Amino acid sequence: MNQGTSFLDDPDDTREAIMRATYVALGKHGYSDLTIQRIGDEFSKSKSLLYHHYDSKDDLLLDFLEFMLTQLEEQLPVYKDSGADDHIQDIVDQTFVFGGTHTSDDFARAILELRTQGANDDAFRSYFTRSDQFVRKHVAHTIRSGIEQGIFRDVDPQETAALFQLTFVGTMTQRVTSDDDVLEDARAEFERYVRECLLAE
Amino acid sequence: MNQGTSFLDDPDDTREAIMRATYVALGKHGYSDLTIQRIGDEFSKSKSLLYHHYDSKDDLLLDFLEFMLTQLEEQLPVYKDSGADDHIQDIVDQTFVFGGTHTSDDFARAILELRTQGANDDAFRSYFTRSDQFVRKHVAHTIRSGIEQGIFRDVDPQETAALFQLTFVGTMTQRVTSDDDVLEDARAEFERYVRECLLAE
User: Which residues bind DNA (chains A, B) (predicted)?
Assistant: First the structure.
C-alpha cells in the first residue's frame, strides 16, 4: 500500500476519485473522526454520489480496502523464474515499508485503526484475513521458487511466509504506537535471519 | 501480562481491587465502551473512591497499565547465571503468549485497543514505548549472558532483542485482528531461527 499510485495522482473514473478522496480523508482525520461528509470534502464531484453508492462509512471503507488490495496485487513485481534472492530482498523492503518513509505516518496510523476494528467487527477481520493470506501466498511462492532454483535452503515455505507476514504486522503496529527507532535494529536482525537461515550456503 | 496473577484472585488492598475491577471491565467492554461507571460495577467498594482517585477513564487506564508493567517485571523469572538457553525458550513462549491461551481473547483485544490509542495519544504511546523498552532490555540481557556462557552465537543483543519484541507485537496484533492460525506456522519458523541463528553450533 504505497503512496504515489496512479489513482492518487490521476483518478481514472468516479470510483478512483472516491478512493482518492477516502485515502486523503482517512489520513487527515483517522478512522474515529472520519465521516462520509469529510470524505465528500475531498471529492470534486457531487457528494450525493457517495451517499448513493455507500450505506455507511464502514461500507465505503471496506470498499476502499478492497480497492487497495487490488492495487497491491497489481503493483507487486511480476515474478520471473530467476532472481528469487533479489525478490526476497524486495519482500524484506516491503515487510519493513511501514517502518520506512514510503507510507505517510497518517496513513499508516489509519490502517492500524482499521485493522483494530477487526478485533470487534467480522467484516474488517475477514478483510485483513484475506489480505494477510495474500501476502503469505506471495511470499511462500517466492520461497518455493528460490528453493527450486537452489538459492534458498530447503525450508518450509508456508512457515517462512508466516513469519514474514507476522513481522510485517509487527512493524506496522510498532511504527504507529510506540518507539519506532527499534525498527532499524529489528530489520538488521531480520536481514541476518534471511542471510543465515534462508539463503543457501 | 498473564492471567492468574494474585491481584486478580485476591486483591491485597484498595488499589489492587481497583486494578482487578479495571481488568475485568476492560475485558468485558473493550476500550471504546469502557466507562468509570462500568469499572465501578466490578468493584466491591464504594464507587466514589474511583472518582476520587482518577480524573478520567484514560487516567485510570494509564495507572492500570503501569500496574500491569510492574506485575510483569515482578513475574519475570529471576535470571540466574546459567541456563540462558532454557530462558530463551521461556522468552519464545512469552513472545507467542498472545497467540496462545494464556491470555483471554477479550483481554488481548483490549490491550491492542489501548496500544492503538498510542497512535493519537502521547500518554499511551509513551507507556507502550517504555513497556517495549523493558521487554527489549530483558531479552537483550538474556542474549548477552548466553553469549558469555557460550550458549549463543556472537550476535548483536540489541538487534536480536528488537526482532523478538517486534515479533511479540506482531503476534498480539495478528491474534486479535486477523487469521490466528498463522501463529503456529510463524512460531515454528521463529523457533528454527532461534536454533539455527542464535544457538551456538
Answer: 35-54
Tally of CB atoms within 10 A around A103: 19
Q: What is the pLDDT of residues A135-172, one digit of tens each?
A: 899 899 989 989 998 989 999 999 999 999 999 999 99
Domain ranges of chain A: 1-75, 79-201
Q: Which residue has the higher pLDDT, A62 or A105?
A: A62
**Fold category of A1-75 in CATH:** Arc Repressor Mutant, subunit A (1.10.10)
Residue B99 DSSP one-character state: G
The answer to whether B186 contacts A171, with C-beta atoms less than 8 Å apart, is no
Q: Flag if B178 and A129 touch (Cβ within 8 Å).
A: yes
CB contact under 8 A, B185 and A129: no
Pick out chain B residues at pLDDT < 50: 1-4, 99
pLDDT tens-digit profile of A114-141?
Answer: 999 888 889 999 999 999 999 899 899 9
- How many pairs of residues across A and B have Cβ atoms under 8 Å apart? 161
Q: What's the rounded Cα separation, in Å, for the pair A123 and B145?
A: 46
> Which CATH architecture does the domain made up of B78-201 adopt?
Orthogonal Bundle (1.10)
Q: How much of chain A exceeds pLDDT 70, in percent? A: 90
For residue A1, the distance in angstroms to the closest alpha carbon of chain B comes to: 18
User: B177 near A177, Cβ under 8 Å?
Assistant: no
B163 with A133: Cβ contact below 8 A: no
For domain A79-201, give its CATH number from 3.40.190.10, 1.10.357.10, 1.10.3470.10, 3.30.200.20.
Answer: 1.10.357.10
**From the CA of A35, how many Å to the nearest CA of chain B?**
18
Q: Which residues in chain B have their CB less than 8 angstroms from residue A128's CB? A: 177-178
3-class state of residue B169 by DSSP:
helix
Say yes or no for a CB contact (<8 Å) between B193 and A188: no
Query: Are B1-75 and B78-201 equal in CATH topology?
Result: no
ipTM of the modeled complex: 0.88
Task: Answer whether B34's CB lies under 8 Å from B26's CB.
Answer: yes
